[in-house]
Amino acid sequence: MTKIFSKLHQVTDKARRILSGARNNPLFCVCFRSHVNMVEHGSYSKVQALNDLCATTFTPSGIPSPSSPAIRKLCSLLDTIHAADVGLKEENPDDDWGHGFFGLDRLSQAARWSQPITYIDIYECDSFTMCIFCFPTSSVIPLHDHPGMTVFSKVLYGSLHVKAYDWVEPPCIYESKGSSCPPVKLAKLAVDKVLTAPCGTSVLYPKSGGNLHCFTAVTPCAVLDILTPPYMEDAGRKCTYYHDYPYSSFSTRNGTEIRDGKEDDYAWLAEMGTPDNLYMRQGVYTGPAVNV
């Protein structure tokens, strides 16, 4: 997954010049309003409208405020997008190999886990990435972070369990002396629920909304993601995976006390390498073309 995300920041100089010119052109807002009217009359795709709105909203270093009108506008547009708008056909749960989140398998455990998550690029530049993840039942994207990033997620079909954390501030880190156990850092649970389409857009921010999250497919499902700015190791935005431990695992060793909420609202997170069982393949985008 890290290799997939590492290429998302790549963009040609020509595309950069075009995007920069569009943002600085006072006539662009007028053009965009006419494009929105075209969407309403069916002659302009929602994906193109989404891409244009992202291009005028995001910059390579700019992080939008949660209260920004542009955020609300983007969420409103995302809320109207369905699987067919991006060239997807909803999967039939009866055709899937699993039997739900905690159910029994129709085939062997090994066969079910061998099903890959499909990753589909829609558009990418140095300001944002627009992509789709298609999940078979019970497939998982393990707990990972989005350092310094804002991420919009829209479930297009099916049901997806989301578990997400935010770091506790000020940071609370426990390092076990003379032990092989890696350092752990305290995080607070932000989201723990199942999202079922149709549903509203979820947004996570650099320090709130569940910046560290894990996805588990309850049924076959697909998620449209917009990441801004994209993953870029050179800029310190590297995808890191974590293992979460119950709060009680380390709290008694270092005397940490809960300041807000219950023990179940907290967990200790330890960095880990890219999981060996993360099986992902590149898919082909078949929806409406995106023109820059």
Descriptive keywords:
292 residues, alpha+beta, Jelly Rolls, six-stranded mixed beta sheet, disordered N terminus
Structure description:
By secondary structure, this protein is an alpha+beta fold. The chain has a single domain (about 45-90, about 110-280), classed as Jelly Rolls. About 20% of the residues lie in helices and about 30% in strands. The chain is built from seven helices and 13 strands. Strands 3, 5, 6, 7, 9, 11 and 12 form a seven-stranded antiparallel sheet that branches. Strand 1 (about 115-125) and strand 2 form a beta hairpin. Helix 3 packs antiparallel against helix 4 (about 45-55) and helix 4 runs antiparallel to helix 5. The radius of gyration is 20 Å and the shape is globular. It starts with a helix and ends in a 10-residue tail after the last strand. It catalyses: L-cysteine + O2 = 3-sulfino-L-alanine + H(+). Its cofactor is Fe(2+).
